[in-house]
Amino acid sequence: MDKFKGIFPALVTPFHENGDIHEESLRKIVQLNLERNVKGFYVNGSTAETFILSMDERKKLIDIVTDEVKGRATIIYHVGNIGTREAIELAQYGEQAKVDAISAIPPFYYNFSFEEIKGYYQEIMDSVNVPMIIYHFPANSGVQFSIENFKELLQDDRVIGIKHTSMNLYDLERLQYESKKFILNGHDEVFLGSLSMGAIGGVGSTYNMMADKFVTIQKLFEENRMKEAFALQREANNVINALIKVGVNQGIKYGLEKMGIPCNGCRKPFKRLDKKEKQFLDKVFAENHVMNNFINT
User: H/E element holding 78?
Assistant: First the structure.
C-alpha cells in the first residue's frame, strides 16, 4: 500500500501549436513534480483529455512518462474506455511498459447494467498481470456504484484500490472500512477532508501546477498540524474556485505556461482563455501563493 500513499498528479497533455503531443513539455511537467516529491503519476486520466486522444496517443503518453520517470515514482495508467476491447489493448500496452497499476473508468454512455460493468473489469484484469484501481467518477461517467456494488467488485484480489472522485466522503470512509482496500481521493478541493475519512493520498488535476501544496497538506495532517493544513487547503480551494470559473483544464495549462512549459491550450471543443480570464487567474495565483517560480508575472 505504501507504493500508492501520497500525491499523484493526473497529468495534463501538453500540445504543440499544430495539436501534436508536446513531448518536451510533458517531460518537464514530470520533472517539476518529481522535484516536489510526488508519489507518482496518473497517466491518461480525465485531465489528459483522454477521450479526445487517439489510441496511439494514449500509448505515446505512457511511453514518455515511463521513460522520464525511470522507476523513480509509481505509475498508474488509466485504460478506461466505452469498449472492453480498447481497454484491454491499453491495459496490455501498460503491462509491457511495466506500469505499477492500471485504472479504468466504468464503460459509460449506454447505461450498461452492473453485470456488464463487472464483466468489463473482469475481462480487463484477465488480460494482464497488473493490479486494478477502479476509477469512480459518477458526475462525469454517469455511473453511480452503490456500496454493495463496490463490495462485489472489491472481492476480487486483483482490485487493490479505488480512485474516488466524489464529494461523498461518507461513502469513501465506508468503502475503506468495509473493504480494507486503499482509497485515493479524486476531488482536490476536499483532499484534507478525505484524509480524515481514510484516504491514503490523492489523484488530482491541480497537482500538475501546485502539487507542493498537497504534499505539504498531507505531511501536516500526519503531524496533526491541522490549522496549518487547513490554511493550505483553503488557498488551494481559492485557486480551484477560480479554475472552475474559467475552465479547469485550460486554467491549469495556463499556469504551466506561466512556468515556461508550453501547453497550447486544450483540444476543441474546449475553448481558449481570453485576456480577461488570464488576468483573473494571475490575481488569484498571486494571492494564494500558487508558485514562486512563475516567469513573466
Answer: strand 74-78
